[in-house]
């Protein structure tokens, strides 16, 4: 009782936890006394040891009140006036009390314990008591100043290095963060020694997640983040709820988001990509999305930056973001953001409207337009007028899409300003970045995207051309990736996509009477491949769309700006897809008289390329048909010119001929096969083969184009394989009969034997005779159907699968029936073409292969021995060295060519592009004709 009468209470009267005079003291089995409420809270938090001695407590219930101590305290209070007490009674734990010099002195003593004590437990207790002082908030700036001194900071760091008590570590981190955010000197002290920072990071990675706040305040280099592999821990914090952390000056989740935003800006793409993949693959991205709603603007902006990088790294995650993100807080951030942050917000919003469903994109656009307390469109318009040139196209693209949510109006300042900026950027050759951004933006405005957000305009154009394998493949992936729903839903999506495409194309092409075409024409001249590619696709798309738009008088502008350019691309493009897309663009000009007139000038330049696509593209077929009709009124546009001929009379008659790629194969009556290489106007003999002992009557190539077959009167069929410029015999089939007019499918061969009927052999050796009652003169094989022309002038179709025989033309039962025979028979484009000779003359007939109805019958002046058919012409090889050229569609004779003087044209063949016609004659000459 020696302290009775003093104003400061004896320390035995004060609870070591609350630092207040005891009201209900209890003495534990360890001999230490505490305030009942305080020690009860200690135990309720899961602690099982004494706070001072750290000895284990074996009793679950607290003992009775220490009445001896309570009476001593009461006696002391009676001798001490109430108004002079420096440490009045604390009836409620944690209630702040007025500051006194005593508490300052006690704090100093506690801080001294922290800095000087060699006993860890005493230093840990000092940390907890300092935290209590701070939480009660009755010290103001004085405690702030006392805790900011370097020795104190170092004392806290020693605790971080040595303590294993989670509560102590959390209290230490809390205090350093609270003091550090107000005093930069604390941060300087902590960052002066690298090991201090490493220690804090290490604690964070071990699960002390509150340490992220202190790490954020320390601002370590991004290299340290990556070297110390902090990303996974940051992602763990992002996924937690706010109420799982101690309340601090900065929320741990916010600090984690801000640090992640710093990490993704690092130039080490490999390490950053790994972080992004971890973020996207887990649920952390949902935590980042929730941060868009943060009250703290910096956290919202950081979330935008992270999500934008995630979308760029893995476009598929945009669907999660678009579905869960609240955009109103993001839009609210726009006004207070700096220029860089504003552009990031615009980029983020632009990426969100690249979903693979048009209806979803429209929904997001409506949210962007209507959310927030201010007009998004007016804000973007003002920003568009001040942003950097390479940023303008992105801003303009978003503004234009918002404007098009309604049906295009006659006037719209938003639309006018947006399109003006896009055109200006396309023309800005001084800023390649702006040109590239404008070209990319235009490509995206078409409005169709893959599940990963890539524009589908290129693949969509290829689909319209007919090269739609890539598009169908993409669509299958869409269905697997996210394009679910029934057929009706898919139809509605397609309808919405078409409507959007129509509106967008309409406003672009009609702006300032087609000014966009001038800009695209200039962009196509750029020396930067990205600009050329973007302008090429956008120009082709807009030209294609003009077929479906009302005539507003911009067709002439489009022709002046782009026709010659696309003709040049079509002629020179090495890439098949580029060639096909330019063909689609050119096809738009044939739909109006002026366009057809202008494109006809270039007919010779593009006809060869069209032939390359005629088998795969209806667009090419349509254009060739139009050009063919035009050519009939302009015969000078077409030219058949003999390029080269070779005399092979020493080998007898040229009986068969075939073209394959850049090679010509000829079969001769002495059993010789010759291989010619053709390039330009040079025909070079590369190989001669005499493995057949008698006349080579037939040469044929499989539809796949990789195998050659030959048939001969030596009663064999030979299979030839290719090896660079040479061929060699791979297999010999002994068919025990003369082979005439050999035709080959994948598993069988068909030919005319020496006797009646048609011989059909399978490669495994089986053989059968079809149509044995007829003497067959010529054959044609198409899609499993065998057509035969006979000596009695009859024509039959045999279904090889079912064996069904159908008579197309009946024979003539006369004594001189053999004088009235079918000499030539071919099937092309669903029609059967036949030429018959009789005493009366030569008859040319065309039949419908589906209905067997007669389409046309004409008389020819010459006797025909061979025939070749192209998409535009029919070639008749006749006696007396004559070749007649007829228009296939109009069936009018174009010209007659003189092959020789006293010979017959025995065989004819066209190359795959229909640019080269090769003939073989009875006097042993091989001739090459150019078709142009």
From TrEMBL:
Its EC number is 2.3.2.27. The keyword Plastid does not apply. Coiled coil: none annotated. It holds the Pfam family ARM_LIN_C. It catalyses: S-ubiquitinyl-[E2 ubiquitin-conjugating enzyme]-L-cysteine + [acceptor protein]-L-lysine = [E2 ubiquitin-conjugating enzyme]-L-cysteine + N(6)-ubiquitinyl-[acceptor protein]-L-lysine. GO terms for biological process: protein ubiquitination. InterPro entries: ARM-like, ARM-type_fold, ARM_LIN, ARM_LIN_2nd, E3_ubiquitin-ligase_LIN, RING-Ubox_PUB, Ubox_domain, WD40/YVTN_repeat-like_dom_sf. This is RING-type E3 ubiquitin transferase. Residues 8-83 form the U-box domain. Pathway: Protein modification; protein ubiquitination. The keyword Transferase applies. One of its GO terms (molecular function) is ubiquitin protein ligase activity. It is an enzyme of class 2 (transferase). Keywords: Transferase, WD repeat. SMART domains: Ubox, WD40. WD repeats lie at residues 689-723, 905-932.
